[in-house]
Amino acid sequence: MSKFEIPKTVNPDLDIERKNASFNPDEMAAFFWGKQEIVEMKRMIEQEIYSDLDDPLTHEFASYEDMASIAIKHAVAATKKLRAIQDRINPGGSEVYPTLMGGPVGAALMPAGNPFAVHLVMFTRALKGQGTPEQYEKFGRRADNCEIIGTFAQTELGHGTYLRGLEARADYDRKTQEFVLNTPTMTSYKWWPGGLGHTCNYCIFVAQLYIDNEAKGIHMFVVQVRDEETHMPLPGVHVGEIGKKLGMNGVNNGFLGLKDYRVPRMNMLMKNQQVLADGTYIKSPVSQLSYFPMVYVRCMVAIGNALMLAQGATVVTRYSVVRRQSPIDENEPEPKVLEHLTQQMKVIPEIATAIAYRLAAANLYLLYNQTAKDISRKDFSRLPELHALACILKVSCSYDSTFGIERLRQSCGGHGYLLAANLGNLFATATAACTYEGENSVLYLQVGKILMKVWADVLEGKKLMPTMAYFAECGQMTQFPNWTGTWDCLVKALQFACVGATRVAHRSYSARLKAGQSQPVAVNNTALELTKAAELHGRVNVAGNFYQEVVNGKGKDKRSPQFQKVLENLLELHLIQTFFRHLGDILRFVRVTENEISALQVRMEEALITLRPDAVAITDGFDFHDKVLSSALGSYDGNVYERLFDAALKHPLNKKPVPDFFEKYLKPFMKENAIKAKAKL
Ligand SMILES: Cc1cc2nc3c(=O)[nH]c(=O)nc-3n(C[C@H](O)[C@H](O)[C@H](O)COP(=O)(O)OP(=O)(O)OC[C@H]3O[C@@H](n4cnc5c(N)ncnc54)[C@H](O)[C@@H]3O)c2cc1C
Which residues bind FAD per the record (predicted)? Predict the structure, then answer.
């Protein structure tokens, strides 16, 4: 149908960028994904699983009902494919299935979103992590095997953040040894769980536990919501879909009400706390254990959102060397838009930021795995540190990727607004993570409160957790040492600003406590300062980690000098850009002269210009398959205009030369106007 066939060759404007790169993008791929073997496995898997995919735009033109059906079809196909590969290359492992059901591979396989996502990330993990071995045998094994599909139903119509405000209740009936589950009000209906609408037949239902009408706090219950044969909602269950969202519309987020719904005592997840048959309640030995599953999801958000930013940066970098607009010198031809310095400033820092977050998220995941091993040996000592780090990286990464993707979208001009660019979908997916798994402002406050405790420990000379150790060092300095402008100096300036912000927040907070305010009221009144301190702590972590990886990273000796130089340029850009973003925060505590700031401005411009010729090679090194990018603007071959045309011609409206609405509405309207106009003559 297309008059403009998509060429089989690479756009020469993109080709020349690749030829002129200063380094081999395969080196970036191994660095970005952690190991050469991982890249090879990823490529092998992608070659196998993408060959028979539907056109990613198909679901966009479907009705909502059809889209839900397409999403399930895709999720089932993805599960089968990835499980088969997992069984073939490492039976019993998890690096292919379920891991690749999320992230870029999952997005390629399930472009409408993954209705099994919460099943995989939360339902199965909670059954394993919070259930007893018997409960795992009864529910967990079947869930792992996808004989049943579940979700995690915590948020209610009336409450998400404030868990103690949840109204759903579970009353223990010791006569029958059952819990009676109820959502007694409209606002106590569960609202949001992924897949709950019409996909899942089970869920973990989070409710206030009552024994003899005495509240025991929030607990988790395994609840069957639909018949396993007919999929009909069970008696006492009111379940459905909550409606169309900004994105991920195949995820089938749902609502759930329960009325006097009875489950056996053994349906309460009892690994850490128990209700005995006689109604005796046994508390969890470590309260933080209950949030351990959330920590995992926050790690996944940090990794996933870093990759989303990298995808956006890949699309826009490629587009920016193919798109030509506005001569810089009137006598010269139109340049690639990436030659405009403002375009470089919009695109290249996002490339650096994506790498910085990728590295920070990988380190967080390492800490998660170490902590999980410690916990299995009943050592809970690292949990507070993991919790603090997961919170702050989840927030920083979801915010920065969201705003970064939006900046990238705008830097494509009009074409960035088309669905075919796929930047809108990326944005919608990235921004959701600012809300779920702990709303970002609320997590900032949690970290701010942790920083208050850290500062109190500094004042008392106590030992700090490793990721907070800089508080002790900076806390001893009365003023920032001489400004040198080195990378070390830039990281230290951020640390100093964070410690300064924490110190003043602590001063305000303590004064409020001293004045008689309760702790929560004092926290609320100090919330802006706490948020600022937390935000800076996030920046310190990401920037400091990037610095360490580039300068002292394990694989540094194996890097080619050319690649090392590229990494150093990216680090330079990231550190200086972060400095400028927080200039006000830094100047509050660190003396930097106008000349020193001007020198950084010059260095930032130089970093942009130095990185410009390698921008395509760096993003090629992110190694995203075209099926993952799913973008007319960002495909590997750079045939942007042909792909835009191809996507436009696939639009259902273009199937017929005259749409139905012409005869129905448009023609009568215009004719009527013509008759009226004639009558006036
Ligand atoms: C795409 C998506 C998927 C989801 N999937 C699931 C799921 O599978 N299962 C599930 O149970 N839930 C799910 N949720 C729900 C999600 O977890 C909640 O929306 C989230 O926890 C925020 O809660 P809330 O909506 O009640 O926001 P609210 O808490 O009402 O937030 C509204 C505003 O109040 C502010 N606020 C609230 N409390 C405080 C405070 N203490 N201090 C300062 N400010 C505060 C917030 O910062 C925000 O600005 C999902 C949500 C989305 C968007």
Answer: 155, 194
